[in-house]
Amino acid sequence: MTHAPTRTEVIVVGAGPTGLTLACDLARRGVSALLVEQAGALFPGSRGKGLQPRTQEVFEDLGLLAAVHAAGRPYPRMLSWENGERQGEWDLAGGPGPAAPDPTVPFPSVWMLPQWRTQELLHERLRELGGEVVLGTALSGLDQYPDRVEARLTGPDGAERTVSARYLVAADGGRSTVRRAVGIPMAGEQVDPRPALVADLEIDGLDRGNWHVWPKAPGGPLLLCPLPSTTAFQLFAQFGAESGTDSGTDSGTKGCPEHDAEPDTSPEGVRRTVAARTHLPESALGRVHWASGFRPRTALAERFREGRVFLAGDAAHIHSPAGGQGLNTSIQDAYNLGWKLGQVLRHGADEALLDSYEEERLPIAAEVLEISTRLHRAGGVRAGGLRRGPRTEQLGLGYEDGPLTVEARPGLAEDALRAGERAPDAPLDGTTGDTASDTTSSTANGTADSTADSTADSGSASGTGSARRLFELFRGPHVTVLAVGRALPELPAGVRGYRIDGGVTEHAYGPGLFVVRPDGYLGLATHDPADLPGYLGRLGLR
Question: At the N or C end, where does the chain have fewer CB atoms within 10 A?
């Protein structure tokens, strides 16, 4: 553990997508963090391969979306097989996007990228920001004090070291060591009693332009999805399904009945499962890179915080794979917690701000668990586990009832944008077809170049610089105030403000003053400038 300090501000346990996202966000805020991972390498499998539109917006803010888009691809069309013959194609997610482009949603489609590659790109971004992952290091215990948490970490050499931090975040998965150490219960249920197998393997002679489905395969449905930027396919196979036509088929389980058997995750067992259920000969099935058996279940932690310890990602909630929600919800946890830790540790916000993490994220996790469970039981896994909609895309999930939400504009229309909702994107170049184009100006706390990857809150009074979208103004670790159709008041240091008149922005937001949180949600919506100082003060901005 030569790279582990004895003191830091935040310890993050677990270097999956949750921990890596949080570490990136903390690094760009100048918060010192120690990210440890028990395994000797990052997770090698493709498991969570669908990045929802909202997650892509997060990755754009963190500065890695270009790499994500270069490495991934849109979801391919589904292709059904039966008795070795093609049965027809369909779009799993309802096509490449909405029928008409929506200027408030820059990334309308789910993007496919194997989880291991998403983690690699997050790791590369963390290194660019000056951070690193300490591998082969496990949490062996922790103690909490009024002003700190002390974690006992065991390195690959077996030596134990104590590290002190202001806060600790558990991002160490569904079997979280941290969650058990602090005594937070987790209640759940089995979504499906039938075991399932997921694996990554090489296959010859199967085209990579489709996601292949054998819905009536003996032993249960089987899917093979080509993974972008690789030559491998992701296998999903369900066992013990009623659709099986021959209960005596050797379909890759270790015993009978299949409901009680675990899938054979050995390379030979994986290849045997594919050969038994498809027209592909075993000779076409090559190297198995990774395999895992599981029984779909959901679970939710009773609370997401115990003193100075927070739970995030699978440590806090476990999802069925249906709907592609688990990884995306986990990344949103990290994005919500990161800016709050930054405001407390760097801007002097009251520690009570951190209470809002559980108050905002636990209800969201509970709702998403209901969505994924409903999709699974409706057959979402057989169809590939994806159904489009504002809530599955995570664009329609917000904090309207959260403790940081203040909607102070009376008489709003039923369909009006409200505080607590995601702050929409909008073009700033006047090319949207609206009769009024956007015009902008900034306070002295604005930025002259909002296209830069900001790590500080300083800037000059040069308007919006080269920004062509609202999201470019929001990008970075700062709080933003939009004055839409009205004068921009004086703002405290560390807040970036812009006046925008007309165009898509005014159509989407309506007139008013809007505080856009660092995670891209509307915190305050008001007409009265006198409401701003008190609200911004809660965030440590005075």
Answer: C
Q: Taking CA 361 as the corner, what is the angle to CA 117 and CA 10, rounded to the nearest 5 degrees?
A: 65
Taken in order 394, 45, 168, 474, is the CA torsion positive or negative?
negative
| Beta strands 160-165; 148-154: pairing state | antiparallel
Per-residue pLDDT reduced to its tens digit, 118-162: 999 999 999 999 999 999 999 999 999 999 999 999 999 999 999
Helices (H), 288-422: 326-347, 355-377
Alpha-carbon torsion 123, 126, 130, 134, what sign?
Answer: negative
Which backbone phi and psi does 327 adopt, to 5 degrees?
Answer: -60, -40
pTM confidence score: 0.90
Question: What are the E-state strand segments in 204-304?
Answer: 210-214, 222-226, 232-238, 285-294, 297-301
* Sign of the torsion angle spanned by Cα atoms 105, 111, 115, 118: negative
Q: Among 67-81, 166-180, 213-227, 256-270, which stretch is predicted with the lowest mean pLDDT?
A: 256-270
Distance, CA of 41 to CA of 44 (rounded, Å):
8
* Single-letter amino acid code for the residue at 115: Q
CA 237 vs. chain centroid, Å, equals: 25
Q: Specify the pairing of strand 196-203 against strand 232-238.
A: antiparallel
Nearest residue to 287 (alpha-carbon basis) of 300, 303, 304, 270? 270
Distance CA 430, CA 192 (A): 51
Look up residue 152 and give its two tokens: 């006992």
Q: What is the widest separation between alpha-carbon atoms in the chain?
A: 75
Cis peptide leading into 257, omega within 30 of 0?
A: yes
Length of the chain, please?
Answer: 542
Instruction: Report CA 254 to chain centroid distance, whole Å.
Output: 35
Residue 539 CA, chain-centre distance (Å), reads 24
State the sign of the Cα–Cα–Cα–Cα dihedral 53, 55, 56, 58.
positive
| SS percent in the chain: helix, strand, coil, step 5 | 25, 25, 50
Structure tokens at 431: 């090319």
Q: Could you tell me the two tokens for 63?
A: 């500065």
Dist. CA 508–CA 310, nearest whole Å: 35
The mean pLDDT value of the chain amounts to 88
Rg (CA), the chain: 24
Tell which residue, 534, 542, 494, 493, has the closest CA to residue 513: 534
